[in-house]
């Protein structure tokens, strides 16, 4: 999609209120990679249609997506994991200032090390993976077992600014990361237990649905 059309769509999204606007500005100023607007709006709509009651999020950052999910799904519980102490503190502040505190459980630690706390709250109707891009497959494998029968898994940044389709990337670090995302995308799209699609909105959002057994 061209930039003009993209701005057009974003311009039509309703105002998110004072707290979310402040968070969006904070993220932009401090380079916190919160989900892009068209991406999060698409995800929230899918979660509304699914009527998710319990959601696991890997990667809280400052709590923006967790709070947006909590607001979009009144009564739902969001269990969200973050390992960066500074971001945890900021997230706690923003969550504390919202009226959605009761809906959010923040697990502090590395997502690959807190499986016990996550399993305590299982099953989850939706799992949202939005953390270290090189670890997506591990997050998916570790937590998909806690997904409810009709559950969905949403993964952000699978198109990585379009770099997944570029053949020449100068930086070795970026090239490695792109390869990891590419490998994940292939693995995901060929997973025997899930139907997956990639929506080219935001930074690329994959939606995976467990295949029905009967
Ligand atoms: N979901 C947020 C943005 C998350 S940005 C939003 O849209 O508002 C990604 C976050 O994942 C970063 O804050 C980073 O610290 C965290 N992260 C990365 N790897 C992680 C891991 N293994 N365990 C826990 N948090 C992780
Ligand atoms: Mg993201």
Task: Write up what this structure looks like.
The protein has about 210 residues and is α/β, with parallel strands linked by helices. It has one domain (about 5-210): Vaccinia Virus protein VP39 (Rossmann fold), CATH 3.40.50. The protein is about 40% helix and about 20% strand. It contains 8 helices and 7 strands, in the order αααβαβαβαβαβαββ. The chain has helices at about 5-10, 20-30, 35-50, 65-70, 85-95, 115-120, 135-145, 170-190, and strands at about 55-60, 75-80, 105-110, 125-130, 145-155, 195-200, 205-210. The protein has a 7-stranded mixed beta sheet, with helices on both faces. β4 (about 125-130), α7 (about 135-145) and β5 (about 145-155) form a beta-alpha-beta unit. α3 (about 35-50) runs parallel beside α4. It is globular. Bound molecules: S-adenosyl-L-homocysteine and magnesium ion (MG). The site of S-adenosyl-L-homocysteine (SAH) has 19 residues, from α4 and β2.
């Amino acid at each position: 999609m061209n930039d003009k059309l993209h701005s057009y769509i974003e311009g039509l999204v309703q105002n998110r209120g004072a707290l979310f606007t402040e968070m969006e500005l904070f993220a932009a100023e401090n380079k916190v990679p919160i989900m892009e607007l068209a991406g999060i709006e698409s995800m929230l709509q899918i979660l509304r249609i699914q009527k998710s009651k319990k959601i696991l999020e890997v990667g809280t950052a400052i709590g923006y997506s967790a709070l947006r999910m909590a607001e979009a799904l009144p009564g739902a519980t969001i269990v969200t994991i973050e390992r960066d102490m500074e971001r945890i503190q900021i997230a706690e502040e923003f969550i504390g200032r919202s009226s959605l505190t009761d809906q959010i459980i923040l697990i502090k630690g590395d997502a690959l090390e807190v499986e016990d706390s996550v399993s305590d709250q299982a099953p989850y109707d939706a799992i949202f993976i939005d953390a270290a891009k090189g670890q997506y497959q591990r997050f998916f494998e570790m937590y998909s077992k806690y997904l409810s029968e009709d559950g969905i898994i949403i993964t952000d940044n699978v198109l990585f600014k379009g770099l997944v389709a570029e053949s020449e990337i100068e930086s070795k670090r970026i090239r490695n990361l792109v390869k990891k995302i590419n490998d994940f995308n292939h693995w995901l799209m060929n997973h025997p237990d899930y139907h997956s699609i990639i929506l080219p909105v935001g930074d690329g959002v994959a939606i995976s649905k467990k295949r029905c057994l009967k």
